Protein: Threonine--tRNA ligase
Organism: uncultured Sulfurovum sp
Amino acid sequence: MLTRIYGIAFADKESLKDYLKMMEEAKKRDHRKIGAEMGLFMFDEESGAGLPFWMPQGTKLRQKLENILHKAHRRRGYQQVRGPEILKSDMWRTSGHYACYGENMYLTSIDEQEYGVKPMNCIGHIQIFKQTGKSYRDLPLKYYEYGVVHRHEKSGALHGLLRVREFTQDDAHIFCTPEQIASEVIDIIEFVDSVMKLFNFDYTMEVATKPEKAIGEDAVWDLATQGLKDALDENNLPYTIDEGGGAFYGPKIDIKITDAIGRKWQCGTVQVDFNLPERFEVEYVDEDNTRKQPVMIHRAILGSFERFIAVLTEHYAGEFPLFLAPTQVIFVPISDVHVPYAKKLQAQLMDIEIDAEIYDKNDSLNKRVRNAEKQRVPYVVIVGDEEVEKQSVALRNRRTKEQYNLSFDEFMVELTQQLNEGKI
């Protein structure tokens, strides 16, 4: 019987020490552990492996992230769309998914016809583009979707939110002319950069070339690959090459982020595709009144909300910035007579889209404060006689470990400033 043994070696003791320290820190930051402690998400083996359930706190976190991206997309000229989650298999045959990606798809039969649950969103966006005639004046046309997809991952590969069978991509497809490729790729990289800076991530880029299993002619692949390289070279953006790492329909730029303890994660991607527009006969009318084929740029900034939230959770160790925290403020009334004041303040915070809760259970004050802090909430606010009389709040700031008093109006200003930090 053969036994597989894995090993790792280090050049010196200091490197081993750093590695062991990083592994210990990674264990503390494990998103599965923090997710359970904060009530963000859960899995249920009876329901199916690799299928996450989003709990109330996790749903609030996710919605905040989605809203940040919604506003950023609209400011950059994207239009939101939504496609069906299941299509006839003939569509997946035309796209090449059936031949090149079929083992990762879920297939079913309806009315004696085979259908495939979508593993990607691109076909839906192509069909929407084709619904009405397009002119060169309409390009570039940018569609985005928070698209739910399903992929048949092997059981041994599943790992918390990092590798699941159902996930939601922050997906977008840009239809443009060949001449617009470089400028659109740079706009996407600038979008990526703004998101990475918001969450204090460093990142690198990797150009992935044609894989063994691919559709399209070499000449088309060479043109698309060179387009990506030219866009990066012309703007002095460094990158490495991943030979054979492209998608089956086109080359791509993979965005690899570095978290707070030095680990690298692949999340976002930019892909240039000449093949799918040709296969689906996508056209626009050019300035000379001839019909031409647009280029399709596939693009995701986060990659998927599931994976990105897992990385964010470990990056921040659950200590999310105020603009992202599921619950941002917890009020702890000293006694029952202070609950009405706490409810009044809670309502005012809700008006500026601050999620606030009140801990008024029949526990000691110290226990309620401890329970609030275990939830990694940015602000724990104590209210008693003095606060009611002065219309103020007594703050415990988890992030700075400070305790101080503010008028409620001053507190509102402080919260608003921190909310505004979540804009890109």
